[in-house]
Amino acid sequence: MTLTTPFGHGHLAMELRHFQYQSLSGSSTIRLVTILPGERIAQLILELEHVDLDSAPRYECLSYAWGQNDHDRPITVNNSSFLVSSTLHMALEHLRHEQRKRKIWIDAISINQADLDERSAQVAIMGEIYQNATRVNIWLGPATESSEQAMTFLRMMATDGRRISASSETIPADEEWLSRPIPQGSSSNAHTILSHKALSKDQNNSSTVSARLIRSSMTVVEFLIMQIFFREYSKAHAIKEATKNDFTVTGFPIHDYDHPHRKYFTNEWEPHWHALDELLARPWWGRTWIVQEVWSASEAVLWCGAATLRWKTFQKAMHYSEAWDDMGDAIKGTRRAQHWEALRRRYTLAINLANERVNGRTLSTLLVNSWDRASTDPRDKVFAMLSLIGKNEVVSMVPNYKKSMGQVYREAARDIMVKQGQMDVLLAASGVAGSGDLPSWVPDWRCEAVAKKPALLVNRHLMMKLYFTDSMSQVVLNGHGYRAAGNSKAFASFSDDLDVLTVLSQQIGRVGEVCKANIAALRDEEFTDRAFDFIIQSKFVSAKTQRREAYLRKHIDEQKDASILLATLTGGGKTREDRWAPTMRNIMRHRRLFVSQNGDMGIGPSDVQAGDIVFIISGCNFPFVLRPSGDNFAVVGEAYIYGQMNGESLAGPWSRLWDGAWKEILLH
């Protein structure tokens, strides 16, 4: 193939042959690109050389979003024609110096993407490639009217952030802040005390258990849902209550404390916030590979057109943005907190990985936290994480592009269960509603995270707060505090083709009735009423008066605690306040209330149906709803069963495994 290519600097047009890759000579050999100097409008001319990674000259790396597969922009590489995407072409134009060469590693050029063996081998050492680079250049895209404004705003916030960190006042940790009493002058404290007294009096004077339950109608449902998100909601509420009364997250009144960020919450700064929102909505922030590229970088620079911003400056700005936004949301009454929650999904993991160079990273940690990132090749959702796994972790997988997506996802699930001893990966299982090209027990990392994640993992901000305690086992095993399987150990065996998973289990119930209404879609005044009606009217709860009374009596103490706790969280107001409804809706959006044939109340996946069976799986901290299918079972999803979340269903310790209390079942 030949291509007629115009050259700048007076060169005549000439025909070039299509570029042909030469095989790499060793496992540590890489290709480096040299961008020859030239003016912005000149033809891009590159040189490509083979070097050994251990003795390579100084070089940089390029990180960018591949975007659409529009490889139609011609450049010259080693006097041959080479087609690149419009995104890469624009990045190269901006990176090129006018007077000197620039040596850089670019995956789309440095790796022969058509050679699967080479691609696999190069991806396996990509972490080293980025670590050895002197700098990683992050191309966000072309400049716009708002991008320069956003980058200027980030510089200003970073500068003020340094000013705070250098001051004598320190920002307390979350736990320290939450342990402080609400400052005097806050109405929340008085309301809480009154609510405690009122609730205690009301419940002590109630004549029957049923009357007490009906009088506090929503508390059963709210308590059930609230337990899942207790830590998240209580922390958020404490901060909101403080900021409502003009207190910042530092505990100092805004009007008494010369806070350098206060100026950013006047209306004149609104355009800057919008500009920043637009900058952080660019495709690069959603890429899977940025986790590795940013974490590995010794230095990184953000490029937006010709404007640049050091990554460390960006980090300083974003480190304080959460506090500013809590304060700003209270002062201005905006909804920016919702915008920031979406933005955190794009950048929080990369920032924390860059800040916290810990050795406790596991494959499950990385996969869950990068779930909602985009990848052109779905196998890269796994391969991009392998080089980030901690030194003390064991994994048998290596990148291999000759394997199918299904094989890669199966092997990842197997390694997590066997190497990590981590059965909670089943929380991410594709389930019966999956695409059908994976067993129901295998997580489908292609799916939209919000729709597929269990309730525990819906809120990424909560996960990131727990992320660096040590490892995923602490996030999933200890972060939520549930131990449905007690102290039982993980057990997993697999068929040769990894289609069937064998686990140890105990059946604890069968689904009797499912609330058909999508209560998350109801109006606030109907939300918990509908859920409560479903539970009270269930034949499994109310078939006999005695049974119904026993059921209600069983839960009344917890309802009392729930009423007090909900009143505390809402400052003594109604339990159905607007601030509480969104939390319940968030949890219930992809879930259904159900009642087991035993009369136990639970929350299950949206696909749960009558006849499904609830199991405790050895080594897994949540009960699971499984659907019988011949001699096997299909995973429907995780469940929250009231009274079954801390090993209550297990009559004995782990030693019961050996006397037959645990039964093998097959998941497909």
Automatic annotation (TrEMBL):
One Pfam family here: HET
Top-level taxonomic group: Eukaryota
Entry protein name: Heterokaryon incompatibility protein-domain-containing protein
Domain Heterokaryon incompatibility: 59-293
Species whose genome carries this gene: Paraphoma chrysanthemicola
